[in-house]
Amino acid sequence: MRCPSCFHNGTRVLDSRPVDEGRSIRRRRECESCLNRFTTFERVEEPPLIVVKKEGTREEFNKEKILRGLIKACEKRPVTLKQLEEITQHVERELRNLGMSEVKSDMIGEMVMEALRDIDDVAYVRFASVYRQFKDLNVFIEELKDILQKERK
């Protein structure tokens, strides 16, 4: 590793620690020439996860896009940003664990709704109304009935 201060090619590792739930390693290094200390991060390069949209187009998975949708659905609700970030991390982890290079957007939407339902019913209905494109009030009422039935069980 080249020193960012003097550009010497020799450094030694002083300390290594896992970070980001074990997906990265933080290394504290020291230059053998100028003794400058600096930090590097090492992580496995994950292959891109491709999302196949309803109309057949493809785009790279973007957890920030999911987070934006969750933030809108949870506006003025007692849900923390940390909870929403955990949902996005959980969804990405589950998708990567499937080992598929392409996933349908429907699958992602269902995973997000399932996680959101456990946190806040109102936010769930808001998200579902946009995601499932509720056409009229009857579809909305049916979804609410479904939620009430599941709560009774």
Q: How many domain units? A: 2
Calculate the terminal CA-CA distance, rounded to whole Å. Answer: 59 Å
Overall 3D geometry? elongated
Low-confidence region ranges: none
Structural class: alpha+beta
Strand content: 15-25%
H-E string: EEEEEHHEHHH
The major pleated sheet works out as:
3 strands, antiparallel
Number of strands: 6
The chain-level mean pLDDT equals 90
- Integer-rounded radius of gyration: 22 Å
Tell me what you see in this structure:
- The chain is of the alpha+beta class.
- The protein has two domains: 33 residues; 103 residues.
- The chain is 46% helix and 22% strand.
- It is built from five helices and six strands, in the order βββββααβααα.
- Strands 1-2-3 form a three-stranded antiparallel sheet, with no helix packed on it. The chain has a three-stranded mixed sheet with strand order 5-4-6.
- A hairpin with a 4-residue loop joins β1 and β2.
- α1 packs across α4, α2 crosses α3 and α3 packs antiparallel against α4.
- It is elongated.
- The mean pLDDT is 90.
Comma- or semicolon-separated keywords:
3-stranded antiparallel β-sheet; single chain; 153 residues; alpha+beta; 5 helices; 6 strands; 2 domains; nucleotide-binding; 3-stranded mixed β-sheet; ATP-binding
Blueprint of the fold:
Layout: E1 11-19, E2 24-31, E3 37-43, E4 50-52, E5 58-60, H1 63-73, H2 81-97, E6 102-104, H3 105-119, H4 121-131, H5 137-152
Parallel strand pairs: 4-6
Antiparallel strand pairs: 1-2, 2-3, 4-5
Helix pairs in contact: 1-2, 1-4, 2-3, 3-4
